[in-house]
Amino acid sequence: MDNSIKTAAGEIIFYDKTVKDFHSLEQLLNIISEEYAHNRTAESVNIIGHDNTGKIYKLFFDFNNFAVMLEEAGITFGDKIPLKQKALGEILLDAGVITAKQLDTALKEQAKSGNTRKIGEILIEIDCCNAQQILYALAKQLGIFLQSNQNK
Predict the structure, then answer these.
(1) In a domain, 31, yes or no
(2) Using CA atoms, how far apart are residues 115 and 107, in angstroms rounded to an integer?
(3) Same domain, 47 and 98
(4) Which of 1, 22, 55, 144 has its Cβ near the most Cβ atoms within 10 Å?
């Protein structure tokens, strides 16, 4: 019996407190790309999925704390992810999205802010990469595979 997720929907909460609903994972990616044009970066994403048996799965990404929590019928499967993964900047550097000089510039800018600003937000602001590249790097950091039909 196949118990894979059949539907997924949820909401994206942006740093400016704008909330957008989505009804598919494709729509989630489209909204994040569209909102980037309005200088909005996702702070968290709540996803609710249903499998073919009717079980409800909830997935919550908190990009402030790198927390992922999975729930099935109110039972927590996960907690905060240990930060043993590569840093976001290292992932982008390894992928050839940014250069070592760009990463150094962003890290210095982050340090100036007292480490209150997110490195991804800074890299977008200084035009080193875009929101979709940050999303894919965050997904890789969390061990999640994302696929896009969009051509580069």
Answers:
(1) yes
(2) 9
(3) no
(4) 22
Number of H helices, E strands in the chain: 5, 6
CA distance 64 to 106: 17
**What are the structure tokens assigned to 23, written together?**
């009804």
Give me the phi and psi of 95, to 5 degrees please.
Answer: -80, -5
Q: What is the 3-state secondary structure (H, E, C) of 77-146?
A: CCCECCCCCCCHHHHHHHCCCCCHHHHHHHHHHHHHCCCCCCHHHHHHHCCCCCHHHHHHHHHHHHCCCC
Looking at the structure, tell me whether residues 94 and 63 fall in a common domain.
no
For the cut 70, the answer to whether the pLDDT of residue 98 exceeds it is yes
pTM above 0.85, yes or no: no
